[in-house]
Model the fold of this input.
Amino acid sequence: MGYRLIGEATMVVHFLFLVFLAVGGFLAWRWPRLISAHLAVAAWGLLSLTTGVECPLTVVEDWARRNAGQRGLPSGGFIDHYIEGVVYPGEHTVLAHVVVLLLVLVSWSGYLRRRPIVLLSWSGCPRRRPRAGSPPAARQR
Done:
């Protein structure tokens, strides 16, 4: 029972990871601190896609399912088992990858437009533009 629960929990986390990969940049529009996590997730996604390195979540789920007496994941891993052929047809894999890439790029572009990079002043302290409608700072005497 414990191994099965680990396998199921890992599967859910894996799905959430993939959803965050696709839309995490949009979430960073609202919660800017998420952008660093999204950059890391996107880098991992690109690395695993281009090099074929196996995801640790796939390894954990496969291990847990085998120890629970279930079949492990097929050789293609999580994506081949749960996503490809279920969420989108297998012959559209490249298109699915391109759509996710475009989502990530559009979300980053929007993030940069909403959250301009903070420039450092000569003193080394960040300069921020005053928000529209905010009262001017009190003058010093």
